[in-house]
Description:
This protein is an alpha/beta fold. It contains 6 helices and 9 strands. It is globular and about 45 Å long. The structure holds NADP nicotinamide-adenine-dinucleotide phosphate.
Amino acid sequence: MNYRPQTTVILAMTADGKIADYQNAPARFGSQVDQAHLEEQIHLVDGVLFGANTLRAYGTSMSIRDPQLIQARRDRNLPTQPIHIVASASGELDQNFKFFQQPIPRWLLTLPENNHDWQDKNLFERVLTAKVIKTKNQATNQSDRFNWQLILARLKELGINKLAILGGSTLVSSLFEIKAIDEIWLTVCPFIFGGKNSPTPVSGAGWVQSEAIELNLLEVRQIGQEMFLHYAVKT
Ligand SMILES: NC(=O)c1ccc[n+]([C@@H]2O[C@H](COP(=O)([O-])OP(=O)(O)OC[C@H]3O[C@@H](n4cnc5c(N)ncnc54)[C@H](OP(=O)(O)O)[C@@H]3O)[C@@H](O)[C@H]2O)c1
């Protein structure tokens, strides 16, 4: 399938499968090895995509700082940093986020009616206004309104061949729902967060067991107290 970029989800989770605590605090429970792993994955792609709540939690996005990784991108004739793409249906983002001072290319994906003059503010290099798709969840879940097939095709047209999906679970579930995820890296970290409101890697309505998304385990690495699991999504 080449109508869309190749996609890899990269997330850290606790041993009980949570990607944040019940307060939705930014996930800073991964070790430095995990941070380096994330940076390495990011250096492989043309763009990184994340949901607005992830940006709201962190206020920043991870840029590539390791000189060797930057050089490796230069050697492949890639820009030093991939494009950082925020998905925000509402377009409601705080302009004081440190994200807007980071030396990275930024794109916004929003709905046409929520553009909020972002185009004129020079904070995003590109504002993509996504067409709306009507879904049966529309009344209750505004996040289901992006037409991801069209968006991903547009990103591909714009030169994004490899895309890293950095969370959160709302965004990841939307992309799983249209079978647009190819691979997953999960770092299992030695913590338990518990709590029924703590997010897991994939939210949404879920799938019954007989329709579950199946994975192939490609690779397992244990480094220190963490396990790095690499899966391909079965087609
Ligand atoms: N452990 C990790 O590796 C990791 C990584 C990333 C995030 N996290 C955690 O995950 C939590 C955030 O996850 P989350 O599920 O709440 O949020 P999210 O997926 O980061 O963001 C959700 C928001 O993004 C926009 N969005 C996402 N999918 C959309 C869609 N299909 N259509 C339209 N808009 C869409 C909407 O923005 P608007 O609200 O602007 O409409 C939506 O409210 C935070 O606590 C963060 O710390 C953990």
